Amino acid sequence: VQLQASGGGLVQPGGSLRLSCAASGSILSFTAMSWYRQPPGKGRELLATIFSGGITNYADFVKGRFTISIENAKNTMYLQMNSLKPEDTAVYYCKGVATIGMKVSWGQGTLVTVSS
Question: What was the pLDDT predicted at 94?
Answer without folding.
Answer: 98
